[in-house]
């Protein structure tokens, strides 16, 4: 069975060095140094893909993202990272396509970089990691980026990012357990995903998807908690004065695409399929942060899906969305 995985990552030594020197956002992955070899080597990606039967990866930078660098560096660093991504893809054109990192704290520049990355470099969309210096994306200042994605008809992957120190202190720090436990809860254990779920809810309630009806947004990790509360949010938001002609789940089911990000769990797959359908689901491993190896094939092959649903999730939805 053909497999396209759509949340897979890379990095460069230049960006790693800049991130370590200038970023105020910590990288709280305890295994980051060990991962850097795989992140920097597209040959390692290909060898892994060949071994475990992955036909294509959609590659992006979402770890030490240049998105969080200081404003006087972020545009040039994002361009350099996207240039390198495009150059590496050109060496393996049948195995990779890419998503552009964007200098989001400078929205006009971010929109221009998305346009350059798509029209000149051949990348197939953009990726935004978390909130932007504590700002959520429903702030009108970020609209140029969404307008450009709509104009170009390319998707934006809304990936988790490291939450603020203030969020961690209020929501996750505790006298009852260690700081290490707090950091894990605030990160990949819960906090990243909760914040990204809030991000999606706010964007929909802002009216963004009414204004840009063809905008496509992607969430990983089975929808960052939103599908579990889709009917609940819809019920209560119909009581609010939103001035939107459709309810929350209308926009969610029309405009949002969901991947597992390596969370190969059957209950979540069944829930997401019931909520949005296989035509809004894609496959993802989160390589190299997660390596499911033989499970990459066995999970999708053994899942409770029809043949049509399995093919859509494994590759068909991605082919349509990214125009592969």
Automatic annotation (TrEMBL):
Keywords: Lyase. Residues 48-324 form the Amidohydrolase-related domain. It holds the Pfam family Amidohydro_2. GO terms for biological process: secondary metabolic process. GO terms for cellular component: cytosol. One of its GO terms (molecular function) is carboxy-lyase activity. It comes from the Bacteria. The keyword NAD does not apply. This is Amidohydrolase-related domain-containing protein.
């Amino acid at each position: 069975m053909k497999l396209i995985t759509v949340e897979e990552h890379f990095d460069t030594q230049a960006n790693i060095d800049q991130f370590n020197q200038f970023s105020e956002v910590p990288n709280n992955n305890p295994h980051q140094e060990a991962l850097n070899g795989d992140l920097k080597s597209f040959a390692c990606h290909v060898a892994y893909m060949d071994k475990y039967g992955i036909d294509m990866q959609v590659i992006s930078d979402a770890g030490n993202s240049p998105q969080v660098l200081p404003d006087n560096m972020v545009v040039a660093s994002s361009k350099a990272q996207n240039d390198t991504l495009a150059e590496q893809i050109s060496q393996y054109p049948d195995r990779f396509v890419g998503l552009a990192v964007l200098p989001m704290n400078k929205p006009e520049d971010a929109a221009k970089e998305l346009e350059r990355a798509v029209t000149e470099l051949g990348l197939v969309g953009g990726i935004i990691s978390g909130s932007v210096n504590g700002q959520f994306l429903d702030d009108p200042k970020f609209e140029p980026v969404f307008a450009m994605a709509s104009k170009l008809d390319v998707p934006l992957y809304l990936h988790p990012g490291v939450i603020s120190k203030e969020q961690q202190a209020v929501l996750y720090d505790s006298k009852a357990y260690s700081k290490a436990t707090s950091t894990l809860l605030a990160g990949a254990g819960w906090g990243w995903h909760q914040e990204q779920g809030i991000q999606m809810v706010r964007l929909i309630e802002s009216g963004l998807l009414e204004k840009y009806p063809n905008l496509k947004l992607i969430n990983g990790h089975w929808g960052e908690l939103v599908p579990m509360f889709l009917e609940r949010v819809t019920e209560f938001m119909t009581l609010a004065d939103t001035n939107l002609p459709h309810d929350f789940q209308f926009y969610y089911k029309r405009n949002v695409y969901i991947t597992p990000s390596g969370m190969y769990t059957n209950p979540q797959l069944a829930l997401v399929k019931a909520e949005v359908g296989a035509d809004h689901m894609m496959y993802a491993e989160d390589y190299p942060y997660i390596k499911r190896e033989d499970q990459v094939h066995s999970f999708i092959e053994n899942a409770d899906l029809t043949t049509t649903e399995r093919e859509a999730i494994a590759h068909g939805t991605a082919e349509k969305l990214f125009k592969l």
